[in-house]
Amino acid sequence: MGTKPHILVIDSEQTVRSSLCNLFKQQSCNIVDANSLSDAINAWSISSFDLILYELNAPETLSSELIEITSQVPVVIMSKDIDIRSVVDAIQLGVADYIAKPLDHKQLLIIVEHILGNFKPNDDLRRQRAKFLIGDSPQIINIANKIQTVARNLKPVLILGEIGSGRASVARCIHESSNLYQQPFVTIDCNLINKQQLCNALKTTINKTFYFHNICELSMELQPIVTRALKQKNIRIIASTKNDLSTATALGRFNTELLFQLSVITINIPPLREHKGDIHLLVDYFIKHHTEVLGCNNKFTPQAIQTLCEYPWPGNVKQLEDIIYQALALSISDECITPSSLSLPATQLKKKLINDNDKMQFELSLEEYFIRFVSHNQRYMSETMIAKKLGISRKSLWQRRLKLGLIRE
């Protein structure tokens, strides 16, 4: 890649190709054109281009070849009949942006300048910024790849995942991998913000990333404000939710238009129990990181590490990190950290041997187990999740809380 941007135009109309070639030559760009994607692939190495302007005529144009090249080069699609479903599909496959035909050259130049003028981090830098996405499972690799794809444009992103699964980390990674990485990253807690605060935050919106944490908690009064903000072109909005927004919409608790605009691109983070193979990497990372931060020399015994890797982690990655930090922070200098040093809440009734035949009996009564389980897990789990884990209804959970004086703050 030389100092001049190298652009490829793929369009079936010769007049369009000629017009675009003239336009971008005036902008000091190196530009070539082709009648079809197959012609372009036969003539050039696709990865040598900095940008591809691609004619989209029908959904079937979203071929495997197009999917492959979007992983190498930013692609802007051009279409006479912008079909919203095709556009959504294209963006989810990694397309950087789109523009309707007949082409508005001024608008096209703005789009191209945004992509070429600002988005320059190389693969090594992107990987460095994504270093906190620890794991080598297919789920984590897929998320990492999707982050690099969606970072190329400013389309809104909706992140789905349980409490503690890493939604905020993924949002930050999208920002750090985008052209806005040197600009502010503004986190908005949707459960706490009021109308005045939200309006003030969105007033100065140039070149910012707004992360709406738990968008499901945003009041109906404030949701139209976010909907209007999504229509601006110079900001990125990322939102996350721990709840099903489709259900909330059906119940009249969430704005349908807002959900539609947010969910053009979605990233679904699986709970840690669904990619348990990554736990050992996360354990190694958090031990090393917090040992350095705390300046301690404590070692985890193999049994402690095995315990961490086998635990189901209802609070996901955040709970895992908290337990490791707590064990290190509370330990005496240089002592080994054993399983008993880990403040792990019980997730099943504990058992012990009672005779030579290894028969088992419960060590905890059901009442003691209920108190211990709820007390340890309510930081990470909603009432619905706790009730589900216990195999009871939310009503029964609340009644038992009242009976035992275990009221949630």
Give a description of the structure:
- This protein has 18 helices and twelve strands.
- The protein is of the alpha/beta class and 409 residues long.
- Helix 13 (279-294) packs parallel to helix 15.
- The protein folds into four domains: 6-118, Rossmann fold; 123-270, P-loop containing nucleotide triphosphate hydrolases (Rossmann fold); 276-344, Helicase, Ruva Protein, domain 3 (Orthogonal Bundle), CATH 1.10.8.60; 348-409, Arc Repressor Mutant, subunit A.
- The strands form three sheets. A five-stranded parallel sheet has the order 2-1-3-4-5, sandwiched between helices.
- A hairpin with a 6-residue loop joins strand 11 (351-353) and strand 12 (360-362).
- 44% of the residues lie in helices and 14% in strands.
